[in-house]
Structure formats: C-alpha cells, structure tokens
Amino acid sequence: MLLFDQMTGNPTRRTILTVATAAPAILRAQSRGDVIRVAVVGTGNRGSFLLRHTLRVPNVQVVAVCDILEERAAAAAQMVAGAGGKARVWTDFRKMLDEQKDIDAVILATPDWTHKDFDIAILEMGKHLYAEKPLALNPADCKAIVQAAGQAKGIFQVGFQLRHDPNRNAAERFIQNGGIGRVLMCHGIRHGGDLPRHIPWYFDKTKCGDIVVDQGIHILDLFTWAIGTHPVRAMGSGGTDLFVNDPPGRTVMDNYSLVLEYPKGVRVNFSHHYFDPPGFTGNQERVFGSEGSIDLVQATWKPRTRKSEPVKLEVESAGEDSTYMSVAAFADNIRKGNRKPVNNAESARISTLVPIMATRAIYEKRIVTWDEVAREAGA
C-alpha cells in the first residue's frame, strides 16, 4: 500500500528508508520477513475489531491481550486461538510490558480519557504504539503526547483509519496532486442512529470529549488533510434535542452543525446528528475545487465546467477494510523505520484540536480561533 505525507499527500520515498539508517538503535532491526509481536490493550468494542483485523496482517503475531475486565481479555485470547495463535491474558498493561519481554508493539484501544496517560507510558517503555483517536481531550495533553512520541524509541501511529480507506486514500491523493484544482469548500454529513447503549462512557462528555471529538473527528480529519492545513476559526450550534437524558445521565449532544474557516477562504460545512431514519441520509464527504469536485467515500469526481458522468478513480486494494489497511501500514512502518506515518503524532494533534475548538464554539456560542486553542498547549 502506498503511504502519503500527512499534509502534502506526496508518496513517501520508501527506497531511502532503511532500518539501518532510520530505526533507533535500541530497537531490533527487522527485515521484511520478521514477525512483529503485538499486544492488544483494551479488548472491548473497538479493540476487538482491531484485534480481528490484526490477526489478518501477514507476519504479525498477537502474543498478549489486556483488559481491566479479565473475561473480556480471555474472550480476546480465544479469538487469537481461533486464528491459530496463542496470547497471554493480562489485566494490567504496565505489568504486562514489565514481565512479557517478547512484545514489540502495542495496539491501544482504551477509552478516550485514558489516552494521554496510557500513550505516554507505553511510549516511554520503548514499544511501537498504534493508539486510537482522539489524541487526547485537551490541547495540553495533546502536546504532551506529541512530545513523548518525538522522544520515543518506537514508531507512533494514531488510529485515524479512514486515511487508509482505499477509496478515501485514492481521493485524497487525487486532490493533493491537483486533480480538482484549488480546494474551495468541503461539505460533510454524518447522519445516523444514536450511539450504542452498551458503552456508557460514550454518553459522558468528560470521558469522550462529546460527539465532535469522539465521532465527528474522522470526517473533519479527512477535510483538514484535503485542505492541507488547520482552520483559523470555528463556529457552530448544537445540543441534545431528541435523546434528552437518554440514557440517564447523558451529557453529550445528539446533533450539531459546524462551519470551519481555513486560510484563503476555504470553508468546511459539517452536519452530524443521531435521529436519521435508517437508510435515509447516511454519510457524505465531498470536496469542491476550482476544476472539479470529488466524493471521498465513492472515489468519484466530476469536472466543474462540463457535463459528465462521475469518473471513478483507480483505487488500490479496493474494497479492503480501512482498519485492516491502517494496521497493515503500522506493521510496514515498523519494518521500514518510518517515523512519520500518514496518521502521525503531529497530524493527530491538529486533527484533535479541530473538534476541540469546534466543541468549544458550540458550548460557548461564539467564534473560537485556532490561536486561542493552540496557545493553551503552548504551540
């Protein structure tokens, strides 16, 4: 799979990235055929999905699973056994990393509010780390993780897996290579049903950052990648209008609308709500340019000035799951010593600060600037 720079979209030059010159000396040099031994930490909803796809990646072996609920970790170990492997079961990831010495890398899928402490602890122990988004829940914690990643011995990749979705990746490449001309506007819709009730922390804004940070972040990340820089201002409106106190104690919104202003007059319009009838609206991710417009989900584009049927882009690995592609890229980055994955620490910081500033604009009913949010992290 081709990898692309987090802002320019240009292919990385793998031929000049060798383990001998790029990988830290403390990490064991790995040839292309070497097995990468992985521990999965957090084996609930997202973690189990990541585990299932990790088990498909060639020359990756899951040797440990960890969750604070032992029965959940045991179920994950059974999944590994079903794929022909064997994983030790742990309930404390720090003890696991202290005692199980064969672990090369960690895939972390714990709840959002744990990310800062867990990410830094794992990086400081010298392991490669695939950490789920968001990077953290506030600007200062985002900065702390970026600093830890910069000092770490291992590769750090953040789980913005839609960057690796075959259609979206092809569409982003097309944009970055000038296919639609100058980007003028992005329009996104994420309309569906409410969050799953069996994951209580989804409904607590102190633990998930609210739904822009936890859910809407994916599409906003793609738009920021397409534009090539961060927004300068955010404005929005939202609230809880249908699922009031449902489930009891709910503090997250069930709808919002955003306008984000980027340099040179580029704007993002984004609508996200949880009361869409099944199959009625769904998701839409479109980027409009001076020469044409593109549908990221479908990887189709149309020229601006003439009638035509949508043109389907050539898509590498068409139909493959984005999570599989993201985990496979993580393994490849480890082998190649690539310390700047397409979803790296700095791109994740930017793509986490965007929904943080947007959420603040909604809560405080005012325009929030990038400078205001970035200053909080000393950036």
Q: What is the residue-averaged pLDDT?
A: 92
Order of helices and strands: HEHEHEHEHEHEHEHHEEEEEEEHHEH
Approximately how much helix is present in the residues?
A: 25-40%
Shape: globular
Rg calc: 20 Å
User: For this entry, what is the oligomeric state of its chains?
Assistant: single chain
Euclidean distance between termini CA atoms? 33 Å
Q: Taking strands numbered 1, 2, ... along the chain, how are they ordered across the largest sheet?
A: 14-13-12-11-7-10-9-8-15
Quick description:
The chain has 379 residues and is an alpha/beta fold. The protein is built from twelve helices and 15 strands.
Description:
- By secondary structure, the protein is of the alpha/beta class.
- 35% of the residues lie in helices and 20% in strands.
- The protein has twelve helices and 15 strands.
- The strands form two sheets. A nine-stranded mixed sheet has the order 14-13-12-11-7-10-9-8-15. Strands 3-2-1-4-5-6 form a six-stranded parallel sheet, sandwiched between helices.
- Strand 2, helix 3 (70-82) and strand 3 form a beta-alpha-beta unit.
- It is globular, with a radius of gyration of 20 Å.
- The two termini are 33 Å apart.
- The model is unreliable at 1-32 (pLDDT under 50).
